[in-house]
């Protein structure tokens, strides 16, 4: 059979339903092998970066591998941002690139290029993938495909790239004699989990102010159910990282907000005053801990559980570093909880509730201006019970993370490590194909929306039930906020030199209904309109250009001391651990 046909059959055998691509000559045989198939669909995007983001969204939302294809040269290099996002955020995905014929490839010759659009994409992406390989032997295609799926899914997940030259794509192979990949040669072993879980349980029993920090690894390990069971049995408050926001339902009594630079003030106070932090699947990056990690949860013992051994004791030294699969760990520790009386931490839970009551993420304001945190709170009440939210990068992401109230069956998809503006619209397309019966909501800003708005045509073409909520503050707000704080309000290229079109006109040109909202009082009616049917819809909210994301942590400050700073006496009254002593070097 033709090798390109074998590749597509293999994807179907792995239950891949959609492939995202932009047409190109160097993978013409693979495109042809998709033609007319009923068991897998080819989704033609309008930029390869968008195709990569769509594959990422498909994987994040559906639990299966996202797959994107592109041609050689610019097609392949345009995938890189999406590949990097999958790598940094541990998203399993397969990227297949076409390549020039092997007899046109330069290999080790000291020339820049031989074939038209020839580019050594394998060498370029090596730092951003779990594996990448150029297929030069047709009879090894099964080996490479099986290896790619195994690598992407196992251990800490991530992307894999396969570069397949044109003459390899059209080669004739005997499928019955192809060499397979020995999946056991690459397995990662994590033994002794039962013993470790019992040790952690003993720490919990001796703690009076424990906190769980849920990271993105909870969802990746498919361990949300185990986490909910653990929280119910122990009563321990749960805070989350940005990537772990949908790991635990926000309407449960145990949820205590998002921590970090732009986290909820009450969440940061909770983790700062804890005496035990159980970190589950989070890499404790600077946006969580602040730039002085020695100040983070300084009164607490830290237990850090992660599938990636290199993330343990990387930025924050743990008292107990546990390298294992998170789902297995939670399963084991849940079996230990036979004699735990969680009423012993009633006082601590009341303290956390007091923090939450004193410092809510939004306030009900008057009708004179649009408050983005209040908008996100109101949006929560209209979201379908199984809705999927795709948040872009920028101030809109932070407002959503601070004030959306995510329920058990809802998903919150956003980029963490790569943090690419313009990713949400394309991710939503992938999420929609992974969940055809669900409503997908995009939250974006005017800056990010302009980076990939050509994908409105993909939404219109497939009539995807994607709802777009755009917060228009007429600037690159996050960087403008930074410039105001550190550059004396010299807003070069964020306000000065920046502009945006009339989005209503643009969206209407793609035959998608649109509406613009300017006041808080108009929010409920507009949101009802947004969800009244399954058609795509665009809803623009006009935001004051000078509104900042608050609270915000400044450089060299502990997470509990976000700006605007609380009055010192009030702050000290909230602290159970000793407040951090600032010296001149730390200011």
Describe, in short, the structure shown.
The chain is built from 24 helices and 18 strands.
What would you say this structure looks like, in words?
- This protein has 587 residues and is of the alpha/beta class.
- The chain has three domains: 3-186, Rossmann fold, CATH 3.40.50.970; 193-358, Rossmann fold, CATH 3.40.50; 372-542, Thiamin diphosphate (ThDP)-binding fold, Pyr/PP domains (Rossmann fold), CATH 3.40.50.970.
- Helices cover 35% and strands 15% of the residues.
- It has a six-stranded parallel β-sheet with strand order 2-1-3-4-6-5, sandwiched between helices.
- The mean pLDDT is 95.
Instruction: Estimate the global geometry from the Cα principal axes.
Output: globular
Under CATH, the topology of the largest domain can be stated as Rossmann fold
In the CATH hierarchy, what is the class of the largest domain?
A: Alpha Beta
Q: Helicity range of the residues? A: 25-40%
Number of domains: 3
Class of secondary structure makeup: alpha/beta
Question: N-to-C terminal Cα separation, in Å?
Answer: 68 Å
Give the integer mean of the pLDDT values: 95
By CATH, the architecture of the largest domain is named 3-Layer(aba) Sandwich
Q: Which regions contain 5 or more consecutive residues with pLDDT less than 50?
A: none
What order do the strands of the largest sheet run in, or round the barrel if closed?
2-1-3-4-6-5
Q: Which percent band covers the strand fraction?
A: 15-25%
CATH superfamily of the largest domain: Thiamin diphosphate (ThDP)-binding fold, Pyr/PP domains
Radius of gyration: 25 Å
Strand segment count:
18
Number of helices: 24
Main sheet properties:
6 strands, parallel
